[in-house]
Amino acid sequence: MYTCTGDGLCCTGLHTLGPLTRAEARRVLVLPRPDGVRALNVVEASAPDVREMPLGAHGGCGYLEDDGRCHVHATLGARAKPAGCRRFPYRATATEDGLRISTHHRCPCRTMGERPPLDVNDAREALEGGRGHSDPDAVVTRKILLRRGKPVAFDAWKRFEGELFARAAAGERAESLIDVRSLPTLRGEPRWHGVVEDMRSAHSDGTAFDATVAWFAEGLAEVVGVPIVEPPPARPWGAAFDRAEARPAVSEAPEARWVDWLLDEVWGLEWAAVGSFQLATLDWSVRLRVGRAIERRIAALGASPVRAAAEAVCVVDTVGASGWWEDVASRLVE
């Protein structure tokens, strides 16, 4: 379920505003920025040969207008936006059964308020950019690994997956769907205590992403059982969730946010391109436990149960998509 309502979180420092291709950078360079900054400053490099949209003084993309609209979209049209902006929150996996479309959950448009069923035509337009074909984020062309040494044909996987979705529809909690138990073992160093400490010290630039890492670190600290350091009270994603909370709500329990996130991860099959379902569940189970801890802490600050769950999903989905977490997940012992 998703439609863009302009909550605006996708256009902030919570996300990487790029990378841009050379062609995208040239296209954007012709536009004057709404804040009057010279066009030559529109593309900033965070690493050699990496181009990104710059942040404006408000902490969002430098091409956000005062009303929150995308200046590139408003001036040149949706297809002119950089692919990373145009495709978000959609993602696509190519399979022998066709293209599977799933979504990221780090935007309140996806997790709060009225959320009509996903429009497949809108998703395809965003993914294809008018070219008639979509570059998939992942490709699954072989059998699906249920666990190491246990491959199954795609039809068998669909039956297994269907049973999982049926259990979710019957009301099972996210934890029971993937059998969350104790923390899995990590191969090599650092172990879980060290991961917490690394997260606490790794980011200090004051961006919205740094805040998600800080919140994730303290959620993980609770799960691991190490002393908790108070995360920053600021939640820089808060304004976007304020806008989402002001929209008409639907009658859904907070748990629906977690089940929805988990099933989208399963359906997307990105994990199947690199490992087994069992290995993927280890990743999801850690992030789910961390998310529950974050959810409780945000609720203690006065957020509604639905909002606390949605914000926690945003944090674990954001950190889980980072290269930093991919390194941790790659060391999980199946």
Describe the protein in words:
Strands 2-1-3 form a three-stranded mixed β-sheet, sandwiched between helices. Strands 4-5 form a two-stranded antiparallel ribbon. Helix 8 runs antiparallel to helix 9, helix 11 runs parallel beside helix 13 (305-320) and helix 12 (277-300) crosses helix 13. A hairpin with a 2-residue loop joins strand 1 (90-95) and strand 2 (98-103). The protein is globular. 45% of the residues lie in helices and 7% in strands. The mean pLDDT is 87. It has 14 helices and five strands. By secondary structure, it is mainly α.
Q: Mind summarizing the main beta sheet? A: 3 strands, mixed
Instruction: Give, in spatial order, the strands making up the sheet with the most strands.
Output: 2-1-3
What are the segments in which pLDDT stays under 50 over at least 5 consecutive residues? none
Shape: globular
Q: Note the gap between the termini.
A: 32 Å
Structural class: mainly alpha
The succession of helices and strands, N to C, reads HHHEEHHEEEHHHHHHHHH
Helix content: 40-55%
- Continuous helix count: 14
Average pLDDT, all residues: 87
Any idea what the radius of gyration is?
A: 20 Å
